[in-house]
Amino acid sequence: MADRKHHTSHEEHLREQRLMLDPMPRGKMNEMVMEAMHTTSWKFWLVFGLLAAIVAYALFYKWGVMILEGLGVAGVNRPSYWGIFLVNTVFWIGISHAGTFISAILRVFKAEFRRPFTRAAELMTTFGLVQAGFSIFMHMGRVWLSYWLMPIPNQRQLWPNFHSPLSWDLLAITTYLLSSTMYLFLPLIPDLAMARDRTPDGTWQKVFYRTLALGFRGTEGEWTHLRNALNIFAFAIIPVMFSVHTIVSWDFAMATRPGWSSTIFGPYFVIGALHSGMGAVVMVLAVVRGTMKNMKYFIRPEHFEAIGKLMLIISMAWAYFFFNDYIVQWYGGDKWTKELLHWHEAGPMGWMWFAMLIFNVAIPWATLWNKKWRSTPWLIFIVGMLINVGMWFERYIIVPISLTINRMPFTWRLYQPGIEVWLGIGTLAFFILLYMTASKLIPLIPVWEVQEGQMAHSLKKYGRETVVTVSELE
Amino acid sequence: MAEEKSILAVFSDIDPAADAIEQLRLLGVHDDCMNVISGIPVTEAMLGRPSQWTNVPRLALGGAAAGFLVGLFLAFITPNMYTISVGGQPFTPVPPAVIVLFEMTMLGMLISTFVGVFFDSLFPNYRPMHYVPEISDGKIAILIECLPPDEQKVRDVLKQLGAESVEEAEAQHL
Questions:
Q1: With a CB-CB cutoff of 8 Å, which residues 189-248 of chain A face chain B?
Q2: Of A65, A94, A355, B67, which has the maximum CB count within 10 A?
Q3: Element (H or E) spanning A462, and its range?
Q4: Are B37 and A219 in contact (CB under 8 A)?
Q5: End of a domain among B91, B106, B121?
Q6: A421-442 as b/e, with b when 16 or more CB fall inside 10 Å?
Q7: Residue A295 has pLDDT above 70, yes or no
Q8: Domain limits at A338?
């Protein structure tokens, strides 16, 4: 009798813990997701208004000032021509890697915990890339001539030089932005159809969902085409994701500069991108869970726990690549490289180098081994935030600080940022603003994927133990 | 020749829907005259239905080939269209071309995969269609085309097998 009670409570415990074992009728889940979209408090509008004001001032007004006055109002100057603009470009491209990692890699490996938050992560990819694009266009100065980068013959009858890493960047970022937007949209179609079906006629929302749902009904053919396309995307977008940050790293590594010319920069950048991306995902999930209605059912401590493990592994991998990059340069003994490494640690910005190591390695290692820490949303939110600060510092060290030391000591000058600080704040505010807008327009939870996962999961008794089993439905 | 009737039967679960499909087949309803509509991807094997044809993988392959050709144009043809010779540097080097070829191939493949879904599913389609909104709430519907003399038999089978509703399907704006 006591034994049976124990098993029942164990089963209940498993169901409480795991979304996949705690199914609800589909109609109820749809209702919860729609309610989460439509419930907005005054706090939402307050934050929204504040962010809109920041975007208007810090991003668009300040950018306008820079266009009128010229790049002189920015702090970029010899020898640090790539200041915060490029730091932010690399940072935002890094953030964008989380979506693909979670949605594509975890889909390929059939990691079931991914299901409720794939869309939340994919949105980060698209919106992160928008900010990266903004940062590049700002840095161009004469942004109205940006079409010169496109592979179309312009009035000078010149084509871009495709032997240049900057042209590779254009191709890679464009490919990634288009692919990730398409990959965001395809699995969204069934949920847009669900929103269409639950929205009353005669409203603008009905027109919006009807238009975007494209007439999707869920016929066998439609599902087959969609499933095939999602499989192709999941496999094909992974090398694209790797290529993007590798090519971004080649913007640096192809130059024979101290601190930059490194054969390991490609994977080092990719792992760094995943590090900041995963940190950003837990931050977003913690905020979504804490502020949006009904999200506690969909996003549970088990999800933070699983992402926390990935964060810990990625932190270890980042430390490995960082040390590999460091030791090879240090051992090489090149005069200017030694000077640069010393400058990183003992220069006026040395605090940033140590903070980078503390935030990216020491803190994740000290905290994420602990299950309680990993599963507590606000605690892991703090770790994710510190990792992102640490990764932003890493990019700052690689870009303007490393540019300070070169083979011509008479040009050495510490970078002092100008208007680009405002512009950076503007991109951050714009990212959050886009995310908040999207959370009210599209279902953040892929309900059909959650239901599919719940169908695949069950509890089975082996001897006296109740275990979770997963069937392969796909 | 009598005009075919469209019947929409709604089930709450996969099992009765799969049983109904089998029974309809025994009644002489051809697989081409049935279509299953669901709120989640239910595989053909679960329902005992023939495999669905899709052009998406072929279109993806075609798109990859087209992208590769665009990459070849960008990497090897455009440098010849406006020649700038830089001392000691090859005019059309292969290693940088690999990067351009890779990106354009992947872009071609992914765009054509995306377009392939539109092409195969006939999206966007805003015409009136046979549908009930309960489907997106988890119900499974079978849309059957049958001749008027068979209609009653089909309805009886569907009801016997636990259909929640069996109605004549009317095309409506979604």
A1: 190, 193-194, 196-198, 210-211, 213-229, 232-233, 236-237, 239-240, 243, 247
A2: A94
A3: strand A457-462
A4: yes
A5: B121
A6: ebbbbbbbbbbbbbbbebbeeb
A7: yes
A8: 2-470
Do B152 and B109 sit in the same domain of this protein?
no
Q: A9-23, A365-379, A425-439: which has the minimum mean pLDDT?
A: A9-23
Query: Domain count of chain A?
Result: 1
B62 and B109 belong to one structural domain: yes
Predicted local confidence at residue A3, as pLDDT: 60
Rg, chain B, Cα only: 25
Q: What's the CATH number where B37 sits?
A: 3.30.70.260
In this predicted complex, what is the ipTM?
0.94
Go through chain A and tell me how many residues it has.
474
Judgement on whether residues B89 and B132 belong to the same structural domain of the protein: no
Helix (H, G, I), strand (E, B) or coil at B7: strand
Same domain, yes or no: B96 and B152: no
Residue range of the domain that includes B63: 56-121
| CATH number, domain with residue A377 | 1.20.1630.10
Instruction: Rank A121-135, A377-391, A451-465 by mean pLDDT and report only the highest.
Output: A377-391
End of a domain among B103, B121, B139? B121
Would you place residue B84 in the very low, low, confident or very high pLDDT band (cuts 50, 70, 90)?
confident
A114-134: average pLDDT: 93
Average pLDDT, stretch A234-256? Answer: 93
What is the rounded distance in angstroms from the CA atom of residue B96 to the CA atom of residue B105? 14
Query: Do B63 and B117 sit in the same domain of this protein?
Result: yes
Tokens of B2: 């009598």
What spatial distance separates the first Cα and last Cα of chain B, rounded to whole Å? 31
Given a contact cutoff of 8 angstroms between Cβ atoms, the answer to whether A263 and A253 are in contact is: yes
Domain count across chain B: 2
- Give percent of chain A above pLDDT 70: 97
pLDDT at A260 over 80: yes
**From A9-23, A76-90, A331-345, A401-415, the region with the lowest mean pLDDT:** A9-23
* Interfacial B residues in 68-87 facing A (CB < 8 Å): 74-75, 78-79, 81-82
Give tens-digit pLDDT for B138-171. 899 999 998 888 889 889 999 998 899 998 888 8
DSSP character at residue A19? G
| A268 vs A254: CA distance, rounded Å | 15
